[in-house]
Specification:
single chain, mainly alpha, 68 residues
Length: 68
């Protein structure tokens, strides 16, 4: 029975991982890095914490740079 539960859990984990697109994973990663940077800036009580662009703006700027 324990093996059956393990197989079911692995199956649902694989399905949930496949349900997320690559863009969603990149967006989650971008927000995680931005939030961590903002946290570190606030923790240091720095006065030069600048607002970072949102993910869509970041992708647009990145696309402009990568165009030949």
């Amino acid at each position: 029975m324990n093996t059956y539960k393990r197989l079911v859990m692995v199956f649902f984990y694989a399905i949930s991982c496949c349900a997320c697109s690559t863009d969603n994973l990149q967006q989650i990663g971008y927000f995680a890095v931005q939030n961590f940077g903002a946290y570190q800036c606030q923790k240091a009580m720095a006065s030069d914490c600048n607002a970072k662009p949102n993910y869509d703006e970041y992708q647009r700027q990145r696309g402009e740079i990568q165009k030949p």
